[in-house]
Design a protein that fits this description.
single chain; alpha+beta; 3 domains; 7-stranded mixed β-sheet; 4-stranded antiparallel β-sheet; 15 helices; 45% helix; 16% strand
């Protein structure tokens, strides 16, 4: 894999008998993705579904299309705190020391202890206001008679690690639990079967990674072509969001935009520094939020803190924007990681150049080509058609790159001369 992808990082840990104990790896595209989207990571451990009954650990996150992406993976012999500390340190070394803002795990004590050791300042996640939460918790305990259950009491003691009310304002890219990790594990299970040896296991896992990347590349391509139909009466703001956000994030924002009709501004207070809006749901004056707007700095702040948690302005802020006849989303409300332009950051001075991107993309294309070749070579007609398309694309791109004065007119006419001979040979 290193020969195909010079940007790949891997580390093997051996025991006193020189037997493989732990194996960690992260390829070039994963490292690039982490630089852009590594603000929030989630990791969980699969069941021992491989030949060696070793847990598979997958570090994953969310890209600008709100899709799952993989940052790194590891096979480990045990699930001790020391092993997870080793894994997290390998992750940090591979990612050049870039630490995440937030970490989501399944809450296993060994993982939590490792996170505290490597990232002592990080947050771990396991919508009420605090008084309401406390009241409802008491009601729940009394209803089910759980007063004397130690695990319930322990859960409440650690509420700051999982209850939304206590972690509101911390950014988690929409992750709530490790359920998205579990969904990823089911995808991996389809690609990786238990009888594979170590080499085949890793190769098949990388094919799963390539499958996920194909979805991302396709979403990137569609984002450059697709123009969604405007559906709200606030067309200028909706259109601005469509131009800035990727399609999936735009759909989320449009949902909040559509809810504005159910919001009311109860009161406005103006002073020298900012304007304060009291916003409520229509017909529900007991549901109140405070939105502050600083015109000088073009900054919005809402008491719900959902902008800080999800990186998208919710209906409370949007209601004030509309009330002030604002037709664009201010830069302070636009998180780069959700925008179409986020990958332009790969050209900055972060240490990753476009050369690294090209090499990693070559690796991904080779994986796709292997999968295509497997199905295309079985049928002579498919083989001929595939050769025509590949050779046609190659000649077309080569013509453009070389600036030839007589470009190929199209893929269909760019025939591979060897296809005819092959077809004759196959009868």
């Amino acid at each position: 894999m290193r020969l195909k992808d010079p940007q790949l990082y891997f580390k093997a840990c051996r025991d006193s008998r020189d037997l493989l104990r732990n194996l960690f790896w992260s390829d070039g595209i994963s490292k690039l993705d982490y630089q852009l989207f590594g603000d929030v990571i989630a990791f969980d451990t699969t069941y021992k579904k491989n030949k060696y009954s070793c847990p598979l650990v997958i570090f994953n996150g969310v890209n600008h299309h709100n899709q799952i992406i993989i940052f790194a993976a590891a096979l480990i012999m045990d699930e001790t705190t020391d092993t997870y500390i080793w894994l997290l340190r390998q992750l940090m070394f591979a990612m050049k020391g870039k630490t995440p803002t937030s970490i989501i795990t399944d809450g296993a004590m060994t993982i939590r202890n490792a996170v505290r050791d490597v990232f002592p300042e990080k947050i771990m996640l396991g919508d009420y206001e605090i008084p309401v939460f406390k009241r409802k918790w008491v009601q729940l305990i009394e209803e089910f008679g759980l007063e004397d259950k130690p695990w319930v009491n322990n859960m409440y003691e650690e509420k700051h690690m999982w209850a939304t009310v206590y972690i509101r304002g911390k950014f988690f890219t929409g992750f709530r639990t490790t359920s998205r990790c579990e969904g990823l594990h089911s995808v991996v299970a389809r690609y990786v079967r238990s009888q594979y040896d170590l080499t085949s296991f890793v190769e098949h896992f990388q094919r799963c990674v390539a499958h996920l990347r194909f979805k991302e590349f396709n979403a990137d391509y569609e984002a450059t072509r697709e123009v969604p139909v405007m559906q709200t009466y606030i067309e200028l703001l909706e259109r601005f969001a469509a131009e800035v956000y990727t399609h999936e994030i735009f759909l989320l924002f449009r949902l909040f935009l559509s809810r504005v009709g159910s919001m009311r501004v109860l009161n406005i207070e103006n002073n020298n520094d900012f304007s304060k809006y009291i916003v409520c749901k229509h017909g529900r004056p007991d549901f109140l939020w405070t939105v502050k707007f600083c015109q000088e700095k073009m900054i919005f702040m809402c008491s719900c803190l959902r902008m800080e948690s999800f990186g998208i302005p919710y209906e409370h802020i949007v209601k004030v924007m509309i009330d002030r006849d604002i037709c664009e989303i201010f830069p302070s409300l636009v998180l780069d990681r959700w925008t179409k332009k986020v990958k332009s950051a790969l050209n900055d001075a972060s240490g990753f150049t476009m050369d690294a991107v090209v090499i990693s993309c070559q690796s991904a294309l080779m994986e796709f080509s292997k999968q295509l070749a497997t199905v295309a070579a079985k049928v002579p007609e498919r083989f001929a058609e595939t050769c025509d398309i590949i050779i046609g694309l190659y000649l077309s791109y080569k013509t453009v790159d070389e600036g030839t004065t007589q470009p190929q007119s199209g893929v269909a006419k760019s025939r591979n001369p060897y296809v005819y001979q092959t077809n004759i040979g196959l009868g």
